[in-house]
């Protein structure tokens, strides 16, 4: 029987930390992003035509998200000693998610009231017309109820959940399947072994797809700048600057305080995940980094079942960046349209946002739909006011995705520590040495005779 190869046993040349800087993924990603910005700026029509390049890469990543989530959750649940742990991890994750969402909403609310970026705009709601994609987003937002993310969790068919790429539905099916697989005992052991083998194949496929990441980032950024123009960054610069600044404050000080309580340095954690952040920056989608994020967190020593449940559910229920955006954008529109909002009305907005923020991460436009749903539900702020920020929403979506990624990374570490399953010394050692491998930690399933591949 051949032993499973562990990433820790890989040779030095397999470790990205030992590669020259010009061979690192993040270097080529940054180069592609800068090239895309220049292309879209100097040749707008050519940049706009490159949109399919970026969307094709994101589609290739999304192709793997459902299998990765399913295999990680099922493999994690099948490996735990007790099913009680699964329920405990899920409950603790949801409790932390609610606390994180509330904190992000409050930070955004305070920032927009202190700096008042919408003061002096004096836009008349009657002059605003919903057109194009913005009008479609509002229609989708108006059709959503506060409870939609609960009813949408149950798929009409198992195949449909995977075909549509609905993460919440895939999670629901994966948890039930993993529990059933664990419950049948020895009868399910061959299938558990198959799950581990298939996991190795899927992550190797992910490695192949990631080779095209710089090309995808180049196309996505060239399209964004070519279509919307750099001038859109200055037309609403105050709001855009406040959003990025508030998000940075939230990550450094709020999430930083959480990691400090875990005795982990937030800056080292962000550096460890630099490739994932650059990938998200280039594609404007936090989903593009989901599979690699799960791998990186497992490499820090977080158990697979905690990673699978917390990260996957966090992409629906723990959207710190989207929460910041909702509170900032809603009050900005009120300020810009001279709509007075009392403290009580703002707290009412916050209560609605706690619900509408769920499920607004992952893809560009989802946060905009959540904003439309919030304004339509409350009714005190004119929904047509979203036209005021539609021009820069694409640029704000990047910041939303980056903050969501940071928030889910920290959430996973918190839940692992809460479960007494986090070796802080091991985490800090990994962060200091920055040994960022792209393959999941290899664990030998019973009866396996396969060798898991390591990153080439």
From TrEMBL:
InterPro entries: Na-dicarboxylate_symporter, Na:dicarbo_symporter_sf. Pfam families: SDF (PF00375). Its main location: membrane. The chain crosses the membrane at residues 25-43, 63-83, 95-115, 167-184, 205-230, 242-264, 368-392. It is found in: Membrane. The keyword Chloroplast does not apply. Keywords: Membrane, Transmembrane, Transmembrane helix, Transport. Residues 432-456 are annotated as: Disordered. It is a multi-pass membrane protein. NCBIfam families: PRK01663.1. PANTHER family: AEROBIC C4-DICARBOXYLATE TRANSPORT PROTEIN, PROTON/GLUTAMATE-ASPARTATE SYMPORTER. This is Dicarboxylate/amino acid:cation symporter. It comes from Streptomyces crystallinus. The lineage of its organism: Bacteria, Bacillati, Actinomycetota, Actinomycetes, Kitasatosporales.
């Amino acid at each position: 029987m051949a032993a499973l190869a562990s990433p820790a046993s890989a040779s030095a040349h397999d470790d990205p930390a030992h590669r020259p800087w010009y061979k690192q993924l993040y270097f080529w990603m940054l180069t592609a992003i800068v090239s895309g910005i220049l292309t879209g700026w100097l040749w707008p029509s050519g940049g706009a035509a490159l949109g399919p390049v970026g969307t094709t890469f994101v589609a290739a990543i999304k192709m793997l998200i459902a299998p990765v989530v399913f295999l990680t959750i099922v493999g994690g649940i099948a490996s735990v000693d007790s099913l009680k742990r699964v329920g405990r991890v899920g409950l603790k994750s949801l409790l932390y998610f609610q606390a994180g969402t509330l904190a992000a909403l409050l930070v955004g609310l305070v920032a927009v009231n202190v700096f008042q970026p919408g003061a002096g705009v004096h836009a008349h709601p009657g002059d605003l017309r919903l057109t194009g994609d913005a009008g479609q987003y509002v229609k989708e937002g108006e059709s959503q109820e506060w409870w939609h993310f609960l009813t949408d969790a149950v798929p009409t068919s198992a195949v449909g959940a995977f075909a549509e790429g609905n993460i919440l539905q895939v999670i629901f099916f994966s948890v039930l399947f993993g529990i059933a697989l664990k419950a049948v005992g020895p009868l399910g052991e061959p299938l558990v072994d198959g799950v581990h083998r298939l996991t190795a194949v899927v992550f190797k496929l992910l490695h192949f797809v990631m080779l095209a990441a710089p090309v995808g980032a180049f196309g996505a950024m060239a399209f964004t700048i070519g279509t919307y123009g750099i001038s859109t960054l200055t037309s609403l610069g105050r709001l855009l600057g406040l959003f990025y600044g508030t998000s940075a404050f939230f990550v450094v000080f709020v999430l930083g305080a959480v990691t400090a309580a875990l005795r982990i340095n937030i800056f080292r954690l962000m550096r460890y995940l630099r490739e994932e952040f650059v990938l998200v920056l280039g594609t404007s989608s936090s989903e593009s980094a989901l599979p690699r994020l799960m791998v990186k967190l497992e490499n820090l020593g977080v158990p697979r079942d905690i990673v699978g449940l917390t990260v996957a559910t966090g992409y629906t229920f723990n959207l710190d960046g989207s929460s910041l955006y909702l509170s900032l954008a809603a009050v900005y529109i009120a300020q810009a349209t001279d709509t007075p909002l009392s403290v009580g009305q703002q707290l009412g907005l916050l209560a609605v946002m706690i619900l509408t923020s769920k499920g607004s991460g992952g893809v560009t436009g989802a946060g905009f739909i959540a904003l439309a749903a919030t304004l339509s539900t409350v009714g005190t702020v004119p929904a047509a006011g979203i036209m005021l920020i539609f021009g820069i929403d694409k640029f704000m979506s990047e910041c939303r995705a980056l903050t969501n990624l940071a928030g889910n990374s920290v959430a996973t570490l918190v839940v692992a520590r809460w479960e007494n399953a986090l070796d802080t010394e091991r985490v800090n050692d990994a962060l200091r040495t920055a040994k960022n491998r792209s393959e999941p930690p290899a664990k030998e399933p019973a009866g396996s005779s396969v060798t898991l591949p390591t990153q080439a």
